[in-house]
Amino acid sequence: MTKASRGRDHGDLILRLRGISKQFGAITALEDIELDVHAGEVVALVGDNGAGKSTLVKTLAGVHQPTAGSIQYLGKPVTLDTPGKALEMGIATVFQDLSLCENLDVVANLFLGHELNPWRLNEVQMEVRAWTLLQELAARIPSVREPIASLSGGQRQTVAIARSLLLDPHIIMLDEPTAALGVAQTAEVLNLIERVRDRGHGVILISHNMEDVRAVADRIVVLRLGRNNGVFTPDNTHEELVAAITGATENSVSRRTARILETQGG
Ligand SMILES: Nc1ncnc2c1ncn2[C@@H]1O[C@H](COP(=O)(O)OP(=O)(O)O)[C@@H](O)[C@H]1O
Ligand SMILES: [Mg+2]
Question: Taking the CB of the first residue and of the last residue of the chain, which one, N or C, has fewer CB atoms within 10 A?
Answer without folding.
Answer: C
